[in-house]
Amino acid sequence: MTANGNKPMLEIKNLKGGVEHLEILKGINLSVNGGEIHAIMGPNGSGKSTLANILMGNPNYELTEGEMWFRGELMNDLDPDERARLGMFLAFQYPSEIPGVSMDKFLRDSYNAVKNDSVSVGKFNKMLRKKMQQLGMDESFATRYLNEGFSGGEKKRSEMLQLAVMEPKLAILDETDSGLDIDALQVVAHSVNQMKNPEMGVVVITHYQRILKYLEPDYVYVMLQGRIVDSGGYSLAEKLEEKGYSWIREKAGLEQ
Q: What is the number of H-type helices and E-type strands within the chain?
């Protein structure tokens, strides 16, 4: 429960699951409120991306035990599109290319589907230009085919624009910083900070501390072997950067 007695926006209780009958998550508990940034750190194979995919209802992943509540609704059996309409958004580590589909058309179709609306082309384009100005993006970006020929940094800008347009209640960023140079990293962090508001919670999944110094998360969790083994504030991320994951494995009594 939150300090004012209200339930968290997102509440995960004893979540277990995985892929192809392999249990990867082994009992995850997590609560996220609007206005908060939560960072989940861990090495490859720790279960971070599995958690993101199960939260969004990816059919290739299986939930075997536990509960997922979002804005007061049990999500366990909801389809991905139903979760999106509730206000969830996932930014992928490797965004897909869709040749022949322009950014503005893709975004308008997605907006209408998620918001259950039929906003006109003119009204949507006016809103889109405003979002692009907020993010410091050139308007020509909107007419390019979705992620086709985009650099790594441009693909991340594309994801951030999608996030800005959809205005979700919960944004999950799955290793959005992967492979980015320092300039692209700052673009992502600046975009998230520009969009941060009391109504939106953010979950950042990452290997590294570097993006977190720009985002200043409220909570940091360390995931190892499908479990959250430690939590704290930003200082925990700084300590991980200094000592590495071997330190946290030893602290948690896990094998190297």
A: 9, 12
Q: Which amino acid is at 194?
A: Q
Burial 88-107 (b: 16+ CB within 10 A, else e): bbbbbeebeeeeeeebbbbb
Q: Tokens for 83? A: 């979760």
CA atoms within 13 A of residue 128's CA, in its CB half-sphere? 24
The domain of 183 spans 10-96+168-252
Quick: pLDDT tens for 155-177.
878 888 889 999 999 999 988 77
Residue 131 within any structural domain of the chain: no
Of the candidates 128, 95, 91, the one whose C-alpha atom is nearest the C-alpha of residue 211 is 91
Look at residue 3 and tell me whether its pLDDT is greater than 70.
no
Count up the domains in the chain and report the number.
Answer: 1
What distances in angstroms separate CA 241 from CA 87, 182, 191, 217, 218, one per listed residue?
33, 17, 24, 15, 17
Residues 6+ apart with CB under 8 A from 242: none
What confidence tens digit (pLDDT) does each residue in 11-57 have?
A: 999 999 999 889 999 999 999 999 999 999 998 889 999 999 999 99
Q: Which CATH number do you get for residue 92?
A: 3.40.50.300
State the Cα–Cα distance between residues 216 and 93, nearest whole angstrom. 21
Do the domain assignments include residue 148?
A: no
Distances (CA, A) of 153 to 94, 95, 179, 182, 202: 11, 11, 9, 10, 20
Write out the two tokens for 103: 């950014």
Residue 37 is assigned to a structural domain of this protein: yes
**The whole model's pTM is what?**
0.89
- The answer to the question of residue 15 being in a domain is yes
Distances (CA, A) of 13 to 30, 47, 55, 75, 91: 7, 16, 12, 12, 23
